Amino acid sequence: MEPIISEFDKTIGITGGAGFIGSHVVRLFVKKYPQYRIVNIDALTYAGNLENTKDIESYPNYIFERADICDEEKINGLFTRYGFNAIIHLAAESHVDRSIMDPLAFVKTNVLGTGILLNACRRHWQPDVANKLFYHVSTDEVYGSLGTTGFFTEETPYDPRSPYSASKASSDHLVMAYHHTYRLPVVMSNCSNNYGSHHFPEKLIPLMINNIINRKPLPVYGKGENVRDWLWVEDHAIAIDTIFHKGKVGEKYNVGGFNEWKNIDLVYLLCRIMDQKLNRTVGESEKLITFVKDRAGHDLRYAIDATKINQILGWKPSLQFEEGLAKTVDWYLENQEWVNHVTSGQYQQYYTEQYNKR
Length: 358
Ligand code: NAD
Ligand code: TYD
Hints:
The chain has 358 residues and is of the alpha/beta class. Helices cover 42% and strands 16% of the residues. It has a seven-stranded parallel sheet with strand order 3-2-1-4-5-6-10, with helices on both faces. Thymidine-5'-diphosphate (TYD) binds at residues 96, 193, 203-204, 207, 219-221, 226, 228, 263, 295.
């Protein structure tokens, strides 16, 4: 393959750009930085969907490459072809319940896949790593589970408890090991739960929205007492942009919404918002709430202390939760075709396996 001579300032490979968060990051970078060439590298698993990036498909600085990050030859070929100046790495298996069903798929993509990308950076960037950057997008779940008080800071020791979080923690360690051992310029962020448009309806918020629309049971695990810190996905994309441009090499930044909700309270809020939007009687959707068997090893609480990124880089969330949730519901109501496409086939099979046993 001949290398492409680029007229752009830099070429950034974004992995997982057809997924939920990745598509928002790709969209932000393509639109905000016409001087950057953005190569979206995605295997298009069940979670990846080119409909997520349809609006930027025709931009001259955007390219899509279908590739599995575990395919070493293919990844090295892309490095040769595009001469990446930076990688923003989001590709991952991302759903805890699926990691309980099939842990090795998570070890493969999240650990081996990240290792293959890091190795490609090392091979193609050394000896001159100046002005190169490997940005690793990770999760707050690597820190484990909190009790009813306290927050995760950047210094909190890792204590992952699900196959998903253990695989992400392993990838975080690999990234830092490549920095220390090979001087690879890296930066990392660990973010709390995201919500917003294009979110695959296997995760709590889009699953509940979809089930409320279709008057299906709302499966709340255990007693619904578990707490998550929710962040508007577009605010996460802005945080990634900020850290990419202003973050210090070798450092990590926690990103969070300062917005903790018990699952059951969040589901009640969603029901209220949706009764109103769907012109249903107040209280109608709440009747769909069904308490089901708890998730194995269910982490009680995640809460991020995002002081570092706020004080050093000046980032903070832009949107109030109620406003973001209402916008998210509107997007799902206006994009039922998207939901129909992603919930056909494999999704139906997953849904039956996951919820029929509970
Ligand atoms: P997602 O599941 O919606 O998307 C993952 C994307 O990666 C999909 O497009 C999929 O096709 C692609 N992918 C999966 N395996 C691949 C492989 N082997 N090769 C190439 N592409 C592959 O995930 P998301 O929720 O957008 O999460 C993106 C990243 O952000 C992940 O690394 C995740 O750990 C992290 N994160 C997510 C959240 C959250 O709330 N969703 C919070 C913090 C961090
Ligand atoms: P999820 O969206 O899967 O994110 P994570 O587990 O990575 O935080 O789940 C968010 C919370 O919602 C978590 O405590 C599990 C709970 N949950 C339910 O109660 N019912 C469901 O059907 C799902 C998918 C999640």
